Amino acid sequence: MAAAIRRLPNNKGPSVNIDRSLAVIAALGVTLLAGCATTGFDVQGHRGARGLAPENTLAAFDTAMTLGVTTLELDVGITKDGVVVVHHDRTLNTDIARDAAGAWIDTKGIAVSSLTLAELKRFDVGRLRPNSNYGKPFETQVPRDGERIPTLREVFDRVNARGGSHIRFNIETKLAPDAPNETLAPEPFVRALIAEIRRAKLTDRSTIQSFDWRTLRVAEREAPEIATVYLTTQQGAGDRVQAGKPGKSPWLAGFDVDDHGGSVPALLAAIGARIWSPNARDLTEANIKEAKALKLSIVPWTVNEEADMQRLIEAGVNGIITDYPDRLRRVMGAKQMPLPPAIKP
């Protein structure tokens, strides 16, 4: 294999009790791996199965379960009245949301946190705006008119109703240090999410993931029984790590990757992380080897081409987040890897 995995298209941190962090996360952070022990590889349906059904809808999660996944990957926000809802952007997406009359919304910047659940439920998110740049990569997505933004509780209930007792949930907190007015602050945001996970008695089947590591540190303090997943990307204008740049990245909870030689795996190991979810484009043979030596689990996102899936599996990643669980299952099947069970519709 080449020295680098082929690129896919397209000062000190705050003091922490490292011993305590390592002990807590070593004991509890491995639940992601334990949860997929029956298959040995974590098949994560990105936003359910975005390539096949409208993202982050009950239809998408149904599609993923019918195909057979280990984990439902999803995103959450908090409404004005404090309800945890499943939605990717901090604001309504004008290429997804239509109003009660069926017209595409054109107003940008409507924050999820500015609307009550009842107000949010008025929007239809069952198809992509035709000819939009956002929708063009997903021409395989089947519209499901009438789909509404679900609450996290509704997703949990749907999985349970379908007998998905083996299904895990990888839940991303959607907030950003550079947009504090669009969401709740990290602590109340995470506390609301933790309360919902605990209410459903799903702490052992849930992980909390984020690019905004402030939320992960809150989660580890407030709910050490729930594993955390450290998301990273180092691509272009979206770079959240900012290696080799002056100062600390605002996304890394006060830590600086340059204090660890610019190595993300080294930083993660130093702060007690156990699960790393990098942009797949950032992975190389070298950093995969380093991460594995540091006993980090590696679950890259978002991998949609079968050739890339095959290369990453052969490179030793522990799972893959994909918009197309059917493609990943096909690759795994060809390699005679155990597959997660499908759930009958």
Can you offer a commentary on this structure?
The structure is a single chain. The protein has 345 residues and is an alpha/beta fold. The protein has a single domain, classed as Alpha-Beta Barrel (TIM Barrel), CATH 3.20.20. Helix content is 29%, strand content 12%. The chain contains eleven helices and nine strands. The protein has helices at residues 18-28, 31-35, 58-67, 117-120, 152-161, 186-199, 213-222, 264-270, 285-293, 306-315, 325-334; strands at residues 42-46, 71-78, 84-86, 168-173, 206-210, 227-232, 275-278, 297-298, 319-322. Strands 1, 2, 3, 4, 5, 6, 7, 8 and 9 form a nine-stranded mixed beta sheet that branches. Helix 3 (58-67) links the parallel strand 1 (42-46) and strand 2 (71-78). The longest helix is centred in the middle third of the chain and has 14 residues, at 186-199. The radius of gyration is 19 Å and the shape is globular. It starts with 17 loop residues before the first helix and ends in an 11-residue tail after the last helix. Mean pLDDT is 92; it is low at 6-35.
